[in-house]
Specification:
heterodimer; A: mainly alpha; flat; B: alpha+beta; five-stranded antiparallel β-sheet; 18 strands; elongated
Chain lengths: 275, 456
């Protein structure tokens, strides 16, 4: 059942992405509205997918790469919809939905079979730790989208190209505000994620911190975002630098999420169970 | 000669160092430098045997990496120095700014910077026909919010009604800094006053001490841990389901606590925690059948692993030496040592699937291995971490501090009442230390509320 819902969600996200692309190229308002509607429908079915899988598996579906990529996409779309409602921005969807769709597509190619939970994952920390982390990933991915849009928009302004593309993107102020808002939601979530991970590691492996690659990379991304926050709050960096940092930050997060599991395999204790 | 008037040297000398340590740019540099160094540690395998590095990188590169302590990076002196510098930076920054912030958070009296307010009162203005005192009376019930009392400041003919909330939220960021310091304390406490070790215990075994890693020193637990039973459960698919050691804590010869240790469910006694880490099987006893070559009579004999059993009819003793799952591609086999009554010793193998292969003809028996009885041993990680309460305290403080820092703000909202002719102009405005958008929304709401109200 959850697999059928999953496929339906993927189709809707594909349609939403297509809709947004039509919208950003043709600038026909109905296209944007339809795309948003389809994205909301997709998010609804995605939520159902996750709930159904939760009941079918009997645990929070965030234990393997199929489940995690799907959950990441869910958090990203959720974060996008929140920012859309809050800031009423144009075209953020054209950047957020393709990433979510890509993640869902990658997820769809992976084994979807529900497996019995290994002893190390049988913990009340699993839903807390993993959910919080993916929510952080989702909202910080939205920050990176805003960062990319900022850089594009800034280029338009510097080249004094106030043409069609300029009109299609929100103002620099709004993009910077979105970037900051996402950071102020994402960083606390990231912090809770790393702390719960450390407390769980103590229970499961007998040490809060062992400099395992996954732990190290999660610290790297946390330090990075901490640096970005101090730049913004204490030094007063705005705009371009913050936008670039948000994009690099997402890179570090994605490496923590995927790179460590896929590339640094065999060195770390998580290798046995996927993510 | 007035020494007290001459500028004292020490403070001036200290100042540049203090200034450098109080710099946020230093913070950012340290955060990024630590992040990048940490990445290096994930790209070069840590704490491997030298031979591995020499094989992979060559001798010269190995020496180079080793000289920079890049092979045990997270425990290297320079890495720790950077961590220490970050802690100093954080403490100096905090004390430097806290003095200033403290005065804002705990002012001697409630005050408003009237000049600043009057210079930029805001953009939301309303005009009323009534005079200021009438308007003020009408405004009061609307402006009096649930949070914070309404204050009044007069400057000439102008009255400012204002309220303030969230002063304490300015301290949130320092709570976060404090939590970081607590994590440092946790780490230091655990590395100075704690230890980590592991021990493999067969069922029935008792541990009174554990060997500290990289040393020959045994750590006396102060009590004994007996493993009563180990159980590994599997799903029908063969995937592991649960690992569980049933244990008893024995103190002064008396059992004081019975419990179990499972993955994710460690057991703590007197500050020492036991974690389920691994398990394995080991041969417990070898069950033999001795078949009399002439009569065919069968005598069962159990040889405890590594120990001796006495053969019937005074033919000597039999000791089990090894039990292997596969010898010479002929399947499981056991190695035994036979000691004759005269003291002569012979060792030989008995193959489970081929009892007559290589048999000893001297004895009047054939040996048949009926079973190699196996027992479980449990692999426990043993740790003493005095830092654990600090980790919890730090975690809770950090989450609280971050919640306050990011989701609460110090706001002032005001209404400036100016007499204009017979009537009154009211300007709504405010200031906040963060979340300007939230404040604007709040002011919009208030403005709307005032427009709707029936004040004339």
């Amino acid at each position: 059942m959850n697999v059928i819902l999953f496929k339906l969600t993927l189709l809707l996200y594909l349609a939403a992405t297509a809709g947004y692309l039509v919208y950003i190229i043709s600038q026909q308002k109905p296209a944007g509205r339809v795309a948003l509607g389809v994205a909301i429908a997709g998010f609804f079915f995605h939520t159902a997918t996750i709930i159904v899988r939760y009941y079918e598996a009997g645990y929070a579906p965030v234990t393997n790469l199929h489940e995690s990529l799907s959950f990441f996409a869910w958090a990203l779309i959720g974060g996008y919809l929140y920012i859309h409602v809050r800031y009423k921005v144009k075209n953020l969807g054209a950047f957020a939905t393709p990433i979510a769709t890509l993640s869902m597509f990658a997820s769809s190619t992976l084994p979807k079979k529900i497996i019995a939970l290994p002893p190390v994952l049988k913990s009340y920390w699993l839903p807390i730790h993993a959910t919080v982390y993916f929510l952080a990933y989702g909202i910080l991915a939205v920050a990176a989208c805003a960062g990319i849009m900022y850089l594009i928009q800034e280029r338009q302004i510097k080249k004094k190209k106030f043409g069609a593309f300029y009109q299609r993107l929100p103002s620099l102020e709004v993009l910077d505000a979105i970037n900051y808002r996402c950071l102020t939601i994402g960083f606390p979530l990231l912090t809770v994620g790393i702390l719960t991970g450390s407390l769980w590691a103590e229970q499961a492996w007998g040490a809060h911190w062992q400099w395992d690659p996954k732990e190290t990379w999660s610290l790297v991304s946390w330090l990075f975002y901490a640096a970005l926050l101090h730049e913004r709050l204490a030094v007063g960096w705005r705009g371009r630098r913050a936008a670039i940092m948000a994009i690099i930050g997402l890179g570090a997060l994605l490496f923590t999420f995927l790179g460590v599991s896929l590339l640094l395999k065999g060195l770390h204790t998580y290798a046995g169970w996927g993510v | 000669m007035k020494p007290e008037n001459s500028p004292s040297a020490p403070p001036e000398k200290k100042q540049p160092i203090w200034k450098a340590l109080a710099s946020v740019n230093l913070t950012i540099f340290l955060l990024i430098f630590l992040a990048v160094s940490s990445i290096v540690g994930t790209l070069i395998p840590q704490n491997g045997p030298p031979a591995l590095y020499i094989q992979n990188y060559g001798y010269g590169t190995y020496q180079f990496l080793d000289s920079l302590s890049l092979l045990d990076l997270y425990h290297a002196g320079w890495f720790r120095l950077l961590l220490l510098l970050l802690a100093l930076n954080l403490i100096v920054c905090t004390t430097d700014r806290l003095r200033h912030v403290w005065d804002i958070v705990f002012p001697k009296e409630k005050r408003l910077d009237e000049k600043a307010v009057l210079a930029r009162p805001g953009t939301r203005a309303l005009k009323y026909k009534a005079n200021p005192s009438v308007v003020k009376a009408a405004l009061l019930p609307i402006l009096s919010g649930k949070l914070g009392d309404l204050n009044e400041t007069t400057a000439g003919s102008t009255t400012i009604l204002w309220r303030e909330k969230g002063r304490l939220s300015r301290l949130g960021v320092y709570v976060v800094h404090l939590s970081v310091v607590i994590f440092y304390i946790a780490g230091i406490a655990s590395s100075l006053g704690g230890f980590r070790s592991s021990v493999n215990l067969p069922e029935g075994a008792v541990a009174e001490q554990v060997c500290l890693p990289n040393t020959d020193v045994d750590y006396k637990l102060g009590f004994a841990l007996r493993v009563d039973k180990f159980e590994a459960q599997f799903y029908p698919t063969g995937e592991p389901k649960d690992y569980r050691s049933d244990v008893t804590i024995i103190e002064k010869g008396q059992p004081v606590l019975s419990g179990n240790i499972r993955v994710n469910h460690p057991l703590t006694y007197k500050g020492i925690t036991f974690y389920q880490a691994s398990y394995g099987r080991f041969p417990k006893a070898i069950e033999l059948n001795l078949v009399d070559k002439t009569s065919g009579k069968t005598i069962p004999l159990s040889v405890p692993f590594g120990q001796e059993a006495i053969l019937p009819d005074g033919l000597g003793t039999l000791r089990s030496l090894r039990a292997e799952p596969n010898v010479m591609d002929k399947g499981p086999a056991v190695q035994m040592l036979l000691t004759s009554p005269e003291g002569g010793q012979t060792d030989f193998w008995i193959f489970k699937n081929d009892p007559d292969f290589g048999r000893i003809s001297k004895l009047p028996y054939r040996f048949i291995v009926t079973e190699v009885r196996e027992g479980f041993y449990t692999g426990l990680q043993v740790a003493k971490e005095p830092g654990i309460p600090f980790v919890w305290a730090g975690s809770i403080l950090m989450v609280l501090g971050i919640a306050v820092t990011f989701f609460m703000s110090h706001r002032k909202i005001w209404a400036v009442l100016e007499k204009k002719g017979e009537g009154t102009t009211v300007t709504i405005g405010g200031q906040t230390n963060k979340n300007k958008l939230g404040l604007e929304e709040r002011l919009d709401n208030l403005y709307l509320q005032l427009q709707k109200s029936d004040i004339k």
